[in-house]
Amino acid sequence: MSISQLPALNALLNSVSAILLIAGRLFIRQKNIKAHRASMISAFVTSTLFLTSYLIYHFSKELGPTRFRGDGIIRPVYFFILITHTILAVVIVPMVFVTFSRALKKRFDLHRKIARWTLPIWLYVSVTGVIVYLMLYQLY
């Protein structure tokens, strides 16, 4: 696999993470704790693989920066999505660790309190990561 293929891999990993997060939410609503745990651990692993691939791509000297080529109204829309995605991607990392830590320590009361915030932010970051990829590499 070449460095230039990593953005597509990253979009795939973000898509899988989003699906796993939604599945995890559905499982916990059904009180299927075992399936919830498996989904959330899988989402964590998938997101970790994404982050590794993302960092390899962006620290590679092989390719220069990719510029957004859209114009008109789509340009501010793209940058709004990119900026909110980037800020929340930084915010979500420690939140995921705290959420997982509380679950592993069986502090489910505290786990639930932060998971209510972690899930939608993590899901937003995963979905907007795919949207940014599509807008940057496929649509414009």
Can you offer a commentary on this structure?
This protein has 140 residues and is mainly α. The protein contains 4 helices and no strands. It has helices spanning 6-29, 33-59, 74-104, 108-139. Helix 1 runs antiparallel to helix 2 (33-59) and helix 1 (6-29) packs antiparallel against helix 4. The model has no long low-confidence stretch (mean pLDDT 96).
Instruction: Give the biggest sheet.
Output: none
Distance between the termini: 24 Å
- Helical content band: over 70%
Low-pLDDT runs of 5+ residues are none
- The protein's oligomeric status is single chain
Number of strands: 0
| Annotation field: number of helices | 4
Judged by helices, strands and strand pairing, the structural class is mainly alpha
What number is the mean pLDDT? 96
Percent range for β-strand residues = under 5%
Give the SSE order as H and E letters: HHHH
Cα-atom radius of gyration: 16 Å
Described by the principal axes of the CA atoms, the overall outline is: elongated
Brief sketch in words of this structure:
With 140 residues, the chain is mainly alpha-helical. It is built from 4 helices and no strands.
Keywords:
elongated, 140 residues
Secondary structure blueprint with pairings:
Elements lengths: L5 H24 L3 H27 L14 H31 L3 H32 L1
Helix pairs in contact: 1-2, 1-4, 3-4
